[in-house]
Every structure is written in structure tokens, then in C-alpha cells.
Amino acid sequence: MIDVDSEGPIRTITIDRPDRRNALTVAGLEALERAVADADEPVIALRGAGPAFCAGADLEAVAELDREEAEEFARLGQRVARTIEDADPVVVAEIDGPARGGGLELALACDLRVGTPDSSYGEPGVTFGLFGAWGGTVRLPRIVGEGAALELACTGRVVGAEEALRMGLLSRLEDRPRTVAEELAATETDALAALKRRVRDDADRATQERREVEAFGELAETHAAELGELLE
Q1: How far apart are CA 175 and CA 170, in angstroms?
Q2: What predicted TM-score, i.e. pTM, was given to this entire model?
Q3: Known InterPro entries for this protein (predicted)?
Q4: Fewest CB atoms within 10 A around its CB: which of 36, 45, 81, 161?
């Protein structure tokens, strides 16, 4: 269900279950978590096989869970999303086709979301009596604002790529989403990792500023020779 391919600085992780629109079971989530956690490349590209990015949780599997099992399934989805969010590599969601429910929530955990013009986005859980519980109620308002998050989640409305870009749900719109991962891979990738850690830092302001200074000093020391060459 989860395919991993490494090419230079980019690890491509593909959710490969196109017959189910890449819906995820417990086994799929666990495999996705391992694929992200094991990465030592500086850039991860997360994509779906076939005509969809990811439909989220496999509802057939969810329908068989009792309350305790359902809560555990939600905790697992949250853990996978946190693994993506906290990973050292910069993670790019390459979204072509539908990203729904948990699929959208996993994309929200990525650092950058790059969609094609054919991509679409929605949290349809409310239409069948559920809601996204893989961290979506936390990340969606943080990214698009509380008002837009409530409107999307409470109506189950699907938005297209252009609207998703306008509301800040997408980082960029590209015919070829891999363009962004390639741009990242062409940079000084140790600076990428430092940037991600600083932007994701949720410590108090003074601690964040201290860590920012320390990270800048470390990079300046590491790249002193290159900086000198630029000035020649």
C-alpha cells in the first residue's frame, strides 16, 4: 500500500491503493509512518497513485470498529500526521485529484501543499456523521482561519484548486507538482531543515528567538567559505 522510492535528495512516498482512492487502513497508516520516520533524504514528496491523492480513512474498516478501536484508529492517524509535521525533511504534498477527509488532514501536516489544477479538497465526514480526527480540527483553522475551517468542515463542501489556493490551503498550484520538491532539493538542504525546525517551533518567544540565533550562527559557520566566494 505504501511505496517508497529514493532519487538523490528526494524520497517519494506513494500511497498506492488506487482501487480505493488510496484510502488508508491501520496497516497503511503504520507503513506510511515508517516511510516518513526512516527518511534521511532532505526532501520528502508525498503523493497518491492513480487519479486521487487520498480519500482518507477506509470507511469499510472504520465501520467495523467499536468505540475503543475507533479512538485508537484516530490516535494512530494523529500520530502519523505528527510524524509528518515533526520530520526533519521538508515534506511536500503533491496533490493531483481528490484529497478528502484524512487525506486532506495528512496534507495539512505537510510543510508545503502543491496541487494541480485538477485537485480538489474537502472534509466530508459531517455528511455521514463523523469529522476528521487525524488532527484536522487543529491544523485546518491554523492554516485557513477559523471561519473558513468551520465552513468547510460543517458543510462538507468540496473546493477546487483555485479556491484552495486563494484561501491558503495550497502553497502553490502547478501542472507538475514535482517542480517544488526539485526546487527544494537544489538548495542548501541543511538550511531547509533548520528553517523547518524554526517555523514549526512552538516554544515561548524568547526560546524561539534564542534558537533562531543559534541556528543562524551554526549555518553561518558551516557556509563561511561559500559566503566568502559569493563576495569575491
Answers
A1: 13
A2: 0.91
A3: ClpP/crotonase-like_dom_sf, Enoyl-CoA_hyd/isom_CS, Enoyl-CoA_hydra/iso
A4: 161
